[in-house]
Each structure stands twice: as structure tokens, then as C-alpha cells.
Amino acid sequence: MVKKDRMKTDGKATLTLNGQTYELPVIVGTENEHAIDITNLRNETGYITFDPGFANTGSCSSNVTFVDGEKGILRYRGYPIEDLAAHGTFIETAYLLIFGELPTRTERQEFRHLLDEQELLHEDLRHHFEGFPSNGHPMAILSAVINALGCYHPDLLRINTEEDFLRAAAKIISKVRTIAAWSFRKAQGLPFMYPDPKLTYCRNFLHMMHSLPHRPFEPTDAQVRALTLFFLLHADHEQNCSCSTVRMVQSTEANMFASVSAGICALWGRLHGGANAGVIAMLEKIHEGNFSVQECVERVKKKEFRLMGFGHRIYKSFDPRAKILREAANDMLKSTGYNDPLLDIALELAETALNDEYFTERKLYPNVDFYSGIILRALGIPVNMFPVMFAIGRMPGWIAHWNEANTDGIVKIHRPRQIYTGRAPRKYVPLDLRK
Ligand code: CMC
Question: Which end of the chain is less enclosed by CB atoms within 10 A, N or C?
């Protein structure tokens, strides 16, 4: 089990309130990030901090992922994302995130074997799909079925050993593909394709999505590579909304299935996992002639709508994932001969925005979602499945964070405070006297 390093302290900050002085410890992380520790602030002063959206709040310490948004750095367990993207596979990256180290050849083999063993769903669970309407949103199906998985593994609702953890993690990472692909097949009215253990993780997923009983789907190497990169680049991103949701649910000691199911729901929103679908909708509007690239940018500047796939809470110079995906989208389209006019529009839109003061002043750059939709379209993934694809990729990160929180030894239920702005106390008004 991965061992967690502890934070170091580095001096004290002084706070003066109503003439009284308080000393607050300053803590420092591996990359020299500093934070004022306010753990005892309310007890000592009666005050809380106010930080809507938690943009200035460290909710935990973590060993999993480092992001420096000013410099455009992303590292999983110390490894730069560019190196992992150039040399690694998704499964290797999942192993790294979950266990803290890149696997040896034997460890990788064993992990692959474990995932192969776990790829089938219980046949009773297969029947759950019959209860969903065929136009049911695949994110609702994914979160419901992942949560329902827990019913089939009651022994894993409490994780007591490393062996339990490994089994639960492997089940979720492997089965999430099967559930995702079957939600698509259900919507298409196509027979469910069972997973094929002879295939690698990404090929197997594409097989369950697109093979027919009489005609196996055989993706090109470039398609498999693009999907691998898509999953790998989405595998973790420290304390974003869905990861924080997973940790928050875990803090109640909820099980891993319920916690990651909640993460899927958090990811669903347009400003998080739903953004790449928004990008495609915007590019299609331009393609269909509803407005030009320049008009689109002008309307964004008038704040009629946001430029989807642009801007990031953390990245303020560039998103390193976007750079890699832009190349991957280009390479895949070139090698498959698939000509997507939306890529050219995306490139023109990015160029126009990046040369406009509105965007540069606000440090708004293309994020990972700007190009990912182009890759997914070329893989035959419908737009409503885009956040599902994000969820498959993000699963190792959620599991790594769930485990880190579960084994942290700091059992503290997440429970933020608020500043109450409602009515002052008043007398109950009997029904007859109400106006
Ligand atoms: N288009 C136009 N203006 C924007 C955009 C955008 N995409 N993003 C931010 N702004 C403006 C915003 O209007 C505000 O302007 P002003 O100062 O004049 O009021 C300023 O930039 C700061 O915006 P903010 O909302 O305070 O920034 P944030 O850090 O809270 O928001 C964000 C981050 C990602 C939610 C936002 O940039 C956004 O809505 N982007 C579009 C949706 C998107 O692409 N989401 C995917 C995020 S990456 C995937 C992931 O990691 O989850």
C-alpha cells in the first residue's frame, strides 16, 4: 500500500483580530507551496474563513498529483504528464496513480490479468439495463450501475485489507468500461457485446462499443493510441470538483462504489466533464453557419455565453493536456484519413481567441476539453457519451484519492461552515393570520 508523506511546517503567520494576535502555523509541500493552517482558527478566535468555490482552500494534503497552473505543469506521482503520454499506457498510469509507483513487468502483467478477470458484469446486473429507457442519459446509467455494483460485492463495502482494496479497485476500473459500452448499446438497440480478455483495455472498450456479432470492430493503432492518451490525460487532476466530491463522500466512511458514483454525478455538469460536449456544439454552430469564428468570439466577449473548452480554475498559462491532445487529434485524423472540418474550425477559433486581449488579460487558454471532443467524434463516440469517457479515464484518480483519504488516519468528516444571510429570529405565525 502506498505510504503517504506528511507535510512539513515552516514558521508561523500572525493574525490580528480585534486587537488580539494569533499565531497560525505555516505548512509547506514538496513543491514549496505554502499554506496557512487554520485548523484551530474557529476554536481560538470564533471566526471562520470565507472562500466561495474553495479557490483558496486546501482541503487535504495529497501525494497523488501535482499541478502548477502558472507554469502549466502536471505530474502524476512525480512523473511529468508529457513523459507518461509519450511512453506509458493507461493501465500503467492507473497502476502508478493507485499504488504510487510504475509497475514492474510482473506487476503490470498481474494487474492486467486481474482486470481481465473482473471485466464481466454479474448477469443479474445486466438485466438492470432493461429498466432504463433507451434515451436515458449514459451518465445517469453509469453512476447508478457503478453504485449498484456494491450490492453484488457486499464484502467490499468495507475495505479492511490491501487485498480487498485491490479487488474493489480492479472491479471498478475494469467494469466501468463494460457498463459505459452497454449503456451505448442499449441506446442503439444493439446486442451487448461481452468483453474479450484477449484485447487490451482500450481495444476491448472499442470492441464492446462497436463490434457486431458477425463483424468484429478492428480499430487502427492510431485510434487506440488516441483513446489511450485521452484516458491517460484525464486520469487525475488533484482536487477538482469530482475528486473533491469523492473525498467528501468518503469522509463519511461511505464505500468506494458509492463514493465514485457520486464523483460521476459531479463530473456530469457543463463546467466540468460536460465541457467538451459544449465545445462540439459550439463548433457545429459555426460549421452550420449560425455565426462565424469572429462573431463567436465577439459574442463571448459580450458575455452572451462562454467559450467552451477555454479557461481553467488552475491553469493560467496553458493546459499541458490540451497541447498533447491537439497533436493526438491531428495525428489520428491524418492517419485515418478522416477529415473533420470541426478541427480546422477549432484551430481557427483558438488562434483568434489567443490573439484577443479579452482572453489574454483573463489568462484564458484552451483546456483539455477543447480538442478531446474531436478525438471522441472520430472514435464514433456520441456527444452524450463524452462525460462518460472522461469518467472512465478519471476512475484511477478517484480511486487513488479515495484510498488516500481512507488510509490517511485523519478521520474528519467534511463539513464546511457558512455565513448565514437569512432572516433574523421571528415568531411563528398561525395559519389563519398569514397574509
Ligand atoms: N469564456 C469566456 N470568458 C470566460 C471563460 C470562458 N470560457 N472562462 C472564464 N471567463 C471569464 C469570466 O467571465 C470572468 O470574466 P470577468 O472577470 O470579466 O467577470 C473571468 O474570465 C474569470 O472567470 P471565472 O468564472 O472566475 O473563472 P473560474 O476559474 O471560476 O472558471 C472555468 C473556470 C473552467 C469554470 C471557466 O473558465 C469556464 O467556464 N470555462 C468554460 C467551461 C470549460 O471549458 N470547462 C472545462 C474545464 S477543464 C476540465 C476540467 O479540468 O474539469
Answer: C
